[in-house]
Specification:
Order of helices and strands of chain A: HHHHEHEEHHHHEHHH
Strand order of the largest sheet of chain B: 1-2
CATH class of chain B: Mainly Alpha
Largest sheet of chain B: 2 strands, antiparallel
Distance between the termini of chain B: 7 Å
Mean pLDDT of chain B: 86
Radius of gyration of chain A: 19 Å
Oligomer: heterodimer
Low-confidence stretches of chain B: 338-344
Number of domains of chain B: 1
Largest sheet of chain A: 2 strands, antiparallel
Order of helices and strands of chain B: HHHHHEHHHHEHHHHHH
CATH architecture of chain B: Orthogonal Bundle
Mean pLDDT of chain A: 87
Strand content of chain B: under 5%
Low-confidence stretches of chain A: none
Number of domains of chain A: 1
Strand content of chain A: under 5%
Strand order of the largest sheet of chain A: 1-4
Number of strands of chain A: 4
Distance between the termini of chain A: 36 Å
Number of helices of chain A: 12
Number of strands of chain B: 2
Structural class of chain B: mainly alpha
Chain lengths: 293, 344
């Protein structure tokens, strides 16, 4: 029972990280039909920016320092993504494959740059003392970081849903996902929504970068790309363009992966998740929820 | 192909084949003399990647299938051959036959499944299968693949003529022959009636269906041919490297292939070959460049980007996609008018 509880919380925590990456990917895909390979680069660059810019601050409190690092990561992720959209994606609106290719190039270049600047070894984060402790859940000693990651992701989910359902821009984004041509025909500038969706996705990815650092205790240049593949799987299983679908799929994938990795051999979980995608695509090519947000 | 192009191609092949006997130094381009084992090995790798990029161009550039799993079929050739030789100690011919069989069956089965999807879902499901293959190799099932360590061939599993520094020239000739054969098959394929159907599917799949042809079968044909040839290049890569490493199974490797093809020019065979050769050469030489004194003594702001080959290649790639969509091939063609039919 203890093991099951621990695996469950750890799996949901992993799912929370997947969700933060997948939410942006899903909206970007839903609205713009761009498969954004640079999302892993937003994640990595933001995490390193947060860590590098905050590590020498003499705040005196590790908790405050951590919070500053997270804020920097969110800001850097958002600005980087918005810039990428305006400078690289926008000139290629007529060429879909070109857009995908540009994000591939950006991912290669940005991650190589991080690796060149900070080395390919993992960097250890200094976390406040209360984060390194554990709390008892159903008899299992669950690390606090797992619960923190889950709580933050839940908050982001609520904010995203609020944004999509209750604000004017959210309405435009939802309408654009349904039928972009119609929104344009109604005289609404969809291109501003494109930049906005990229910025939101980048902010969520930057947050995920720093939270993944908190979850694992270290940051390294390769993690963004590694998690991106699972985030893609989450996006497809959850239904392209659907934030709620992504949230559900993220938890399913994270938990499934943890359980199978533990009860099967190492790697069985990763393998099964990948095969799950193939099965889902073959049975339900549109994923498990339509393209509604 | 025009007679003049034929002659030019034959001369180029003869010159390249004679290269091991040319002990000329080319300062700046290569570290050793042209005929030295180090240079021959680098050139051999360039030929392998030229051929591999061509196989990817067949499926991506000609049939219009954006596959993110091409690394799987290359790795299939590398690993099956390595396992048959180093783990099971099969004779060379038996290992080759077994690899060839698997290299045909695997893409046939996976292609039949993946091609039920189109566009981005197709890309994702091919990526998923390739990722599954990558995880499998890393998990080292039954101690076969060697996991992260990779799988070294060892000296006694290959015929003596293919092992050792002194015999690099033999492997170099094999790589050159591979490039020539793959280019010939590719050229014949895209100019054959099925090849024309591939290009028609790329332009308008529904129309091909309306004309009474079954696009699915043609796409499967392109997929299997391209994957089979990719596995062949994998076998030669194994000979050149003397072992298998899990790097070739990763999604990054497929992305590198994509970069090669776009670098050279999508949908042109000689462009893809050029892209593969230039990419591999730059990837190798830029590492050497970054270790030179001139770069190491630069201030950090310049030194760091310059010592990361992938950064330079990524930036080059972005610039090409944005400003020269036809790749290096088109950039060259703009400067020197190439006679029609020059494509090999």
């Amino acid at each position: 029972m203890t093991t099951v509880a621990l695996l469950l919380v750890t799996g949901i925590g992993l799912g929370a990280l997947y969700f933060l990456i997948a939410a942006g990917l899903s909206l970007i895909w839903g609205l713009m039909r761009v498969l954004n390979f640079a999302h892993g680069a937003f994640f990595t660059v933001a995490a390193y920016a947060g860590w590098a810019l905050s590590r020498n601050l003499a705040t005196g409190s590790p908790g405050l320092q951590w919070a500053i690092a997270v804020l920097i990561a969110v800001a850097v992720g958002g600005v980087f993504a918005a810039l990428a959209e305006v400078v690289l994606i926008r000139p290629l609106y007529a060429r879909h494959v070109g857009q995908v290719l540009v994000t591939v190039g950006l991912a290669l270049a940005a991650i190589a740059l991080v690796q060149g600047g900070f080395g390919s070894d993992p960097q250890r984060l200094t976390l406040p003392a209360w984060m390194t402790g554990t709390v008892s859940v159903l008899g299992a000693n669950v690390p606090n970081t797992r619960l923190l990651v889950i709580a933050v992701a839940a908050l982001v989910f609520a904010l995203l849903i609020f944004f999509l359902r209750r604000t004017r821009f959210g309405l435009i984004v939802r309408a654009g996902v349904e039928n972009r041509a119609m929104v344009q025909a109604l005289g609404i500038d969809v291109h501003r929504a494109f930049t906005l969706v990229f910025a939101i996705g980048g902010m969520a990815a930057g947050l995920a970068g720093m939270l993944a650092g908190t979850y694992y205790g270290t940051i390294d240049p390769g993690r963004g790309t590694a998690m991106l593949i699972y985030a893609f799987i989450v996006v497809i299983i959850g239904g392209l363009g659907s934030v709620t679908g992504s949230a559900v799929a993220a938890i399913v994938v994270g938990v499934l992966q943890q359980f199978l990795n533990f009860y099967g051999a190492t790697g069985v979980g990763d393998f099964s998740v990948v095969l799950l995608l193939a099965v889902v695509l073959l049975v339900r090519p549109g994923g498990f929820s339509g393209a509604s947000t | 192909m025009t007679p003049r192009a034929r002659i030019a191609l034959a001369v180029a092949l003869i010159v390249l084949a004679a290269l091991p006997f040319v002990p000329v130094e080319v300062p700046g381009l290569f570290e050793g003399a042209l005929g030295s084992p180090g240079t021959l090995n680098l050139l051999g790798l360039c030929f392998v990647f030229g051929a591999l990029a061509l196989t990817y161009d067949l499926v991506f550039g000609y049939a219009g299938l954006l596959s993110f799993g091409h690394a799987l079929y290359f790795a299939n050739g590398v690993y099956v051959m390595a396992i048959a030789l180093a783990r099971w100690h099969w004779p060379l011919l038996a290992a080759l036959a077994f690899t060839a069989l698997l290299s045909f069956v695997l893409p046939l089965v996976l292609g039949a499944i993946c091609l039920r999807m189109r566009d981005i879902p197709f890309a994702m499901v091919t990526l998923a299968f390739a990722q599954a293959g990558s995880i499998l190799v890393l998990q080292n099932p039954f101690g076969l693949t060697g996991g992260e360590e990779g799988l070294a061939l060892g000296g006694d599993v290959l015929p003596a003529g293919l092992v050792g520094v002194a015999n690099t020239r033999n492997v170099y000739w094999i790589a050159l022959a591979l490039l020539a054969v793959v280019a010939f098959i590719g050229w014949r394929a895209v100019n054959s009636p099925p090849g024309r159907v591939w290009q028609a599917i790329r332009e308008n799949e529904r129309r091909v269906g309306v004309l009474g042809l079954n696009p699915y079968l043609y796409k499967l044909g392109a997929f299997v041919l391209s994957a089979f040839l990719a596995s062949c290049t994998g076998v030669v890569y194994l000979l050149l490297q003397g072992g298998a490493n899990p790097q070739v199974t990763t999604a990054d490797f497929t992305l590198a292939l994509l970069v090669m093809v776009v670098l050279g020019g999508v949908g042109t065979l000689w462009g893809a070959i050029l892209g593969g050769i230039v990419y591999e050469y730059l990837d190798f030489r830029l590492v050497a460049l970054s270790n030179t004194h001139a770069v190491q003594s630069l201030p950090g702001l310049l030194r760091v980007p310059l010592s990361e080959p992938l950064f330079l290649l990524g930036v080059l790639f972005i610039v090409l996609v944005l400003f020269v969509p036809g790749g290096l091939g088109e950039a060259l063609r703009r400067r020197l008018p190439v006679p029609a039919g020059h494509a090999p």
